[in-house]
Amino acid sequence: xxxxxxxxxxxxxxxxxxxxxxxxxxxxxxxxxxxxxxxxxxxxxxxxxxxxxxxxxxxxxxxxxxxxxxxxxxxxxxxxxxxxxxxxxxxxxxxxxxxxxxxxxxxxxxxxxxxxxxxxxxxxxxxxxxxxxxxxxxxxxxxxxxxxxxxxxxx
Length: 155
Description:
By secondary structure, the chain is of the alpha/beta class.
């Protein structure tokens, strides 16, 4: 069983959760030609910095386990989270359960992918999340997260 990663920046009113799905803990070493060389820790650090600069509370969480991700989404409503930025990883193409959790809580979310999923294998071109998401940002490496966070901070 993996230990969920949880990193947060304390601040004021706007509350945003960034949720990273399976295998993203391997960023920096995992297929750098697709995902880049930046670690998840470095990405989280940057997102927390952006949140602080905008007076928002940003909290980052990663798990390789579908159930833990679903529990995290369920907890978001009770914790008063305004927006979720989520990279479902491989669950993008397979998890109806995670999709249902996002639909059930009704919190606006932005789907993020480091690589351009539409320029990859055919099975990666289908997302169970895109039709529910505010929007999808894909193909800009770690900047995809920053763009999603910037949108969440402004809306």
